[in-house]
Amino acid sequence: MTTQMTRASAPRTVTGKSSRPARGSAAHVGRPGFAWAVPATLFFALFAIAPLVMVGVLSFMSWNGLSEPEFVGLDNWTRIFDDPVMIQSIWLTLLLTLLGVALQTPLSILLGVWAAGEQRNRAVLSAIYFVPLLLSSTAVSVLWRALLDPNFGVPAQATWLFGDGNLFGKQSTAIGVLAFVSTWQFTPLHTLIYQGAARAIPQVLYQAAEIDGAGRFRQFFHITLPQLRNSIITSMILMVVGGLTTFETVLILTQGGPGTDTTISAYYMYQKAFKSFDFGAGAAIALVLVVAATIISLVVVRLSGYDKMRGTMEGMS
């Protein structure tokens, strides 16, 4: 009786046909075809690769925007690297980039971890703090230019703190203003990155740490920071690229002054191309910025091991 029931309940199969799911069934998951990548590839080639190639070609030309471009070989490159203002602009760009990373990274990590918690009024305070994300760089620069105006702004009313009130009159204070405004504007963006990453950390890690007697500081340095490793690298790359391409803030706040003390490379490119009508030299400076941002990003990725895409939750299941 048992044998007959077993045979009756066994599924019937057709002789000579495979029991694997059909090609179109839900169980079959294959890679998307190349056709899916064609729109994005064309878009990237048209709006990224093609303009970059045109800038590279223009860097070997002499062109004032009106006459016919004239091939001059390496003349533009020789002139920009013999220009002391260009050399100074490179160092200023690197300085502002380093200041941005040094200021924004610890602030955004602490605020992001805090915003990922369940504190009282956390949602309201986070929403207020993220307001700078809604503003453009131009709007932020105009706002702080008015607030820090040496004649009618806050420094003019608090000379006991700001001295003569002209924060844009010296290189050190002008660079400090640029670093502060950039930090105020972009820290909320990186805070949002860390907030999402902190919420993805499994709570079981903190529960196990509490059982072992670890306090909040040890949990932060031994659990939170290691789990945020990939997010830190991503955030730093965004900071580096953003720092090397900063333009509106300098244009509105300092206009490269006093003198050329805050003339960074992106602003110097603007001066060469759109004020001196030397588009060949401007294109060469733009290409230098692209190459520098790419090299620095690749170095950060390589040294951090991010290119190996190692996870931060090995052993979790």
List keywords for this structure.
globular; 317 residues; MetI-like; two-stranded antiparallel ribbon; disordered N terminus; mainly alpha; 2 strands; cell membrane; transmembrane helix; MetI-like fold; ABC transporter
The proportion of residues in beta strands is under 5%
Could you tell me the mean pLDDT?
A: 86
Strand order of the largest sheet: 1-2
CATH architecture assignment name of the domain at 91-263: Orthogonal Bundle
How many strands? 2
Helix content: 55-70%
Order of helical and strand elements: HHEEHHHHHHHHHHHHH
Please state the oligomeric state of the protein chains shown: single chain
- How many DSSP H or I helices? 15
Distance between the termini: 44 Å
Text of the CATH class of the domain at 91-263 = Mainly Alpha
- Calculate Rg over CA atoms: 28 Å
Outline the biggest β-sheet.
2 strands, antiparallel
